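Why should sequence recovery work at all? Because a backbone constrains its sequence more than one might expect. Tight turns favour small or flexible residues, buried strands favour hydrophobic ones, and helices have their own preferences. The token representation captures these environments compactly. In the example below, the structure is given first.
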């Protein structure tokens, strides 16, 4: 069997330019021992790894070139495994709790977990749903390590660290048979006569939508205010309701939703901004600091100094 020791012998010969004497010195073994080991590898595995000229190694066969590349890859992986094992040995296993309103969890949690789970195998990531008030309270009390929340909010004034990581715009979502479905772009004055299906008042998005409409001198007609975006969508079918949702929602439409609904832009749209937040007054472990930096790097944001 070609184990790590035999691979190291083979690689040493290649990396010492096929000079057996130098390769043996680098391995702290005798030249005859190295020569015998190479012959044993080729015999046991039934492979010809080296080009020979008058009994001397002068290069690699195609098979040898392939094996050398794979050995380099395996040794890099082996070193990565050892490094990660040492990190786990030196750091106690941690649990990191990430909290957010339901839609933000659905939109961002999977990408964050995918980016972090292999890099931090010693960390157990827990995801929790929370509204704006519950998230702020959980961060301040140390129940949550990381939060995701839409802006604007009052988290900065509460002493929390907040940084915008993503942004977009709100769009109008309505049924294909809605009276406004034929328009290419909607005006706010066209939207407000119809009942709105929007997030509930305990979510910052509710105030954002209502206040934005009122700031235009218009009065919103709230038909349904609920916590689930999918329930908001279901309320649009066979009704004249309109929902205002961030454009990113389109990524989660089912085939049925795609066939029955339209998502239309609104002139002078409401901005959609998502923020990363945490309590900087709670001492962070080295791992937690690295997790923060990794999440912010996902959105091309440089991690500020603690």
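From this structural description, the recovered sequence reads:
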């Amino acid at each position: 069997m070609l184990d790590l020791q035999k691979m190291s012998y083979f690689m040493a010969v290649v990396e010492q330019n096929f000079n057996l004497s130098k390769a043996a010195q680098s391995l702290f073994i005798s030249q005859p021992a190295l020569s015998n080991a190479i012959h044993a590898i080729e015999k046991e595995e039934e492979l010809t790894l080296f080009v020979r000229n008058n009994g001397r190694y002068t290069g690699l066969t195609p098979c040898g070139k392939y094996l050398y590349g794979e050995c380099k890859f395996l040794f890099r992986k082996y070193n990565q495994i050892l490094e990660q094992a040492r990190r786990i040995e030196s750091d106690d296993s941690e649990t990191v709790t990430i909290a957010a309103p339901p839609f933000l969890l659905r939109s961002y949690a999977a990408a964050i977990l995918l980016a972090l789970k292999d890099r931090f195998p010693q960390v157990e990531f827990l995801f929790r749903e929370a509204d704006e008030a519950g998230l702020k309270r959980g961060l301040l009390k140390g129940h949550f390590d990381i939060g995701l929340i839409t802006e604007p909010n009052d988290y900065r004034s509460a002493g929390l660290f907040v940084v915008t990581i993503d942004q977009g715009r709100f769009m109008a979502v309505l049924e294909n048979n809605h009276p406004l479905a034929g328009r290419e772009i909607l005006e706010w004055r066209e939207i407000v006569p119809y009942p709105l299906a929007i997030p509930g008042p305990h979510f910052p998005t509710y105030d954002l939508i209502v206040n934005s409409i009122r700031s235009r001198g218009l009065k919103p007609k709230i038909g349904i205010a609920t916590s689930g975006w999918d329930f908001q969508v279901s309320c649009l079918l066979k009704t004249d309701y309109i929902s205002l949702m961030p454009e990113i929602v389109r990524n989660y439409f089912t085939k049925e939703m795609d066939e029955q609904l339209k998502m239309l832009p609104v002139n002078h749209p409401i901005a959609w901004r998502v923020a990363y937040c945490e309590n900087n007054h709670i001492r962070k472990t080295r791992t937690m600091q690295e997790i923060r930096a990794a999440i912010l790097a996902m959105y091309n944001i440089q991690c500020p100094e603690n």
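A few observations help interpret the result. The CA atoms of residues 107 and 249 lie 8 Å apart.
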